[in-house]
Amino acid sequence: MKVGFIGTGRMGGAMVLRLLDAKHDIGVYNRTPEKARPLADAGAKILGSVADAARYGDVAYTMLADDAALEDVVFRSEGLLASLPKGGIHVCAGTHGIPLIRKIKQAHAEKGQILVAAPMMGRPELVSSGTAGVFASGPADALARCKPLFGAIARRTFEGGADPEAATAMKIANNFVLGCAMEAMGEGFALTRKYGVETSVFYDVMTDGLFNCSAYKVYGKIMVDESYSKVGQMAVLGLKDANLALEAGGLKGVPLPSGNVWRDRLVGAVAHGDGDKDWAVMALEQARASGLA
Fold first, then answer.
1. Which of 151, 192, 241, 281 could form a disulfide with 175 if both were Cys (CB 3.0 to 4.6 A apart)?
2. Last residue of a domain, one of 145, 162, 179
3. In this structure, are 156 and 259 located in the same domain?
4. 147-170 pLDDT, tens per residue?
C-alpha cells in the first residue's frame, strides 16, 4: 500500500521502518526534515508538506506527540482535513483525548473522509522488534483496508468496533493501568527501603511471584537501577496521559481515584525538574516524599 506518514519521532520512525520492511510504499513528512533522513536512507520518500502526505497514497497516518500537534496538522490551512481525498482514510496512531478524536471524526465525516483510531501498545523498541500491539477502531471496511499495515507494525490488533473513540479509550485505559501500577511499585520500593530492604531484593520478590510480567520487570528494573535518563516515555507525556484518563472518565461519569494519585506523582516529578526523564521517575518522587535520598 501507499501511505503518507506524518510525524517521524521515535515511535513514528519505528513504525515507518516496519512498514518499509513489509514492502509498503511510504512517504514521510516531519516538521523537522533532518529527523526523517534516516528513513529516506531506508527507502521512504521525503515529502514537503502535510498536504503532500495527505495525497500521497491510500492512507494518511499521523503519529504526533499531543493534541495540539494533531489539531494543527488536521485543521491548518492545507492540512489533513483540507487535503485528504474524499473517501481517504486518516489513521490516527498517537495517544489523544476523546474530545479531539470526536471533533476530528465529525470533521472528516462532513468531508466524506474516514477516521480510524489506531494507537500503539508498547514502547518504540517493541515496535522495532515486532512485538507491539495496535488498538484499532473505525468503520469495518476501513479497518479491513488497513489490516496489512497493522499486521506489518504489530504482532496483534485489538479491534474495538466502529467508533474511533473506542480504540482511543482502550489506549487511555491501558496507560492508566500501567501508570497506576508503576506508581504503586514506587510506593512498595519506598516502604521496603524504610525497613532496610534493598530495592533489588524487593524487585525479585515482585517479578518472581505474582507480578512476573513485562511491565513490572521493565519499569521495576529502571527503578532499581535509577536509570531514568534512558527515556522510553517522558514523565511530562505520562502526565498528559494521566490528564487524558481523568478527562475520559469525567465524560462518561467513571470515577478514577487511582488516577488522581498517579497524576499527582507525575506533577511532583515535573515540578522537581524531572519532566524529561522516563515516567518511571515516579518512584524517585515517591522516595522524596518518603524522606529517602
1. 241
2. 162
3. no
4. 999 999 999 999 999 999 999 999
Cα→Cα distances 80→3, 91, 188, 215, Å:
13, 11, 46, 35
Tell me the C-alpha distance between 101 and 95, whole Å: 10
Q: Is the pTM of this model over 0.90?
A: yes
Largest CA distance in the chain: 64
Q: Are residues 142 and 208 in the same domain?
A: no
Q: What is the pLDDT of residues 259-289, one digit of tens each?
A: 999 999 999 999 999 999 999 999 999 999 9
Check pLDDT > 80 for residue 31. yes
What confidence tens digit (pLDDT) does each residue in 242-255 have? 999 999 999 999 99
Same domain, 9 and 72: yes
Residues 150 and 275 in one domain: no
Range of the domain at 101: 2-162
Separation between Cα atoms, residue 186 and residue 177, nearest integer Å: 14
Q: What is residue 34's predicted lDDT score, i.e. its pLDDT?
A: 82
Q: According to the model, what pLDDT value does residue 88 have?
A: 97
Same domain membership, residue 15 and residue 142 = yes
Q: Considering the chain, what is the average pLDDT of its residues? A: 96
Shared domain for 212 and 277, answered yes or no, is: yes
The residues annotated with a catalytic role in the active site are 171
3 state DSSP class of 218: helix
Distance CA 280, CA 186 (A): 8
Amino acid in position 187: E
Other beta carbons less than 10 A from residue 212's beta carbon: 10
Gap between the Cα atoms of 292 and 260, Å rounded: 23
Confidence of residue 35 (pLDDT cuts 50, 70, 90): confident
Q: Give the distance from CA 102 to its chain's centroid.
A: 18
| DSSP 8-state class, residue 227 | -
Cβ proximity of 100 and 163 under 8 Å:
no
Shared domain check, 184 and 115 = no
